[in-house]
Amino acid sequence: NAGVMQNPRHLVRRRGQEARLRCSPMKGHSHVYWYRQLPEEGLKFMVYLQKENIIDESGMPKERFSAEFPKEGPSILRIQQVVRGDSAAYFCASSPREGSYEQYFGPGTRLTVT
Amino acid sequence: AQKITQTQPGMFVQEKEAVTLDCTYDTSDQSYGLFWYKQPSSGEMIFLIYQGSYDEQNATEGRYSLNFQKARKSANLVISASQLGDSAMYFCAMRVKRGSNYKLTFGKGTLLTVNP
Hints:
The complex is a heterodimer of chains A (about 110) and B (about 120). Chain A has no helices and eleven strands. Chain A is mostly beta strands and about 110 residues long. In chain A, strands 2, 4, 5, 6, 9, 10 and 11 form a seven-stranded mixed beta sheet that branches. In chain A, strands 1-3-8-7 form a four-stranded antiparallel beta sheet, with no helix packed on it. In chain B, strands 2, 5, 6, 10, 11 and 12 form a six-stranded mixed beta sheet that branches. In chain B, strands 3-9-8-7 form a four-stranded antiparallel beta sheet, with no helix packed on it. With about 120 residues, chain B is mostly beta strands.
């Protein structure tokens, strides 16, 4: 039973490029959370999605960031026109159902903007 | 707003000894959950233990126990019989419900080093 998968594990982008981060939840999980971890900080909530729906994006920057979780395929976190301040580790977590306290984390994607 | 405070940026412990990692929280919600996660140098987040706000017994999972003091709003993690492999960052987190969202709020973490 595969865990949460994220790819790529490491991503390097130049300022102004786009970054696409992918998250495949655990089998049977239909709820996905994205978190960002800046250096020397804890994780901060960005967005919560169910299949084809954004439920809560209150932690997502208003510009340049978007997320989706289509009916088929992985969840995608997209960052347009990246800046140095976007350099961080991005984690996704999946949950089997609404209200479950279980959130299983993926290994994270480390984004470096040069 | 929810807040998690971990006042110990770093802790050292001798192998085989017990160690307590501090965590205090702030929320006006009556129903919430408290978590501890371990993040080794490889970077992944590993779930350790969970305590619900209405649970009367302190949670235990193997060598991990959560010392839950509701009146003090503290949820300290106790690791017994430390092992070298316990060296990692440890994050305390709290979950509250907002609409249908059960998002987690994390503290800044404590770096635990276990000495041989």
